[in-house]
Amino acid sequence: MSFPVQAAVEGIGHGGGGWIPLVHAAEVDRAAPIPVPVTAAGLPWALVRLDGEIAALYDVCPHRRVPLSAGKVAPGPSGEVLECGYHGWSYDRAGACARIPALGENLVPRGMGSVAVLRTSVAGGLVWGAAGDESDPLPTIGADDVFLHSERLALGVAALDDTLGASVVDGAIRAGHDDRGALRYAVRAVGDHSTEVFPIVTAARRTGEAHDWAARLAPLPIHEPSRLPSGDTE
């Protein structure tokens, strides 16, 4: 396992090797053909749909260390690739370098320029990423569960859980109870003191529960103005 992936697993903070929520899948599709940049455990990833599947590639081109999220999807020798916007080095969804324009079409020295990737899966409308054992199951998501738009908080995962009085129930998913009722959410560690939280509501009570989440998050240090209680999923 390459260093970026190993570091991501060790730094997630809520179960090494488990699945973490990255972004709403619809956001990736809206941004196409431009990748969506996502930070997990202090490391950058570029999310993009290649040949119908969403891939998560380490967001640094090994050529000149330029973010791959500044590139775009392009045709490759054997399928779609993510093309770096600087010198055109291109990568398939497995992270293998598929093209180096300066060397000529389809000429890539063996093992040259590959980038780390996360395994990805879509569930509950979210793209989930993992770098651990392939046997790790996805978190259980109910048929009536709806993930609201995420919020980035200036709190670490443990501090957020303590503040909301919640505990781990299934990998990245937390559950608890406060004076507004039961609460559930999924988390992604962005850094030591930054967490992306994805509130979970039930479809039948979506509007009311979205307002409850807006009230819960209002006193917390949020990096951007709250987009709740609209509760729109991506």
UniProtKB/TrEMBL annotation:
Disulfide bond is among the record's keywords: no
Record has Transmembrane helix as a keyword: no
Keywords: 2Fe-2S, Iron, Iron-sulfur, Metal-binding, Oxidoreductase
Gene Ontology molecular function, alphabetical: 2 iron, 2 sulfur cluster binding; metal ion binding; monooxygenase activity; oxidoreductase activity, acting on paired donors, with incorporation or reduction of molecular oxygen
Domain Rieske stretches: 19-129
Pfam families: Rieske (PF00355)
Source organism, top-level taxon: Bacteria
Name under which the protein is recorded: Nitrite reductase/ring-hydroxylating ferredoxin subunit
Species: Microbacterium thalassium
Lineage: Bacteria, Bacillati, Actinomycetota, Actinomycetes, Micrococcales
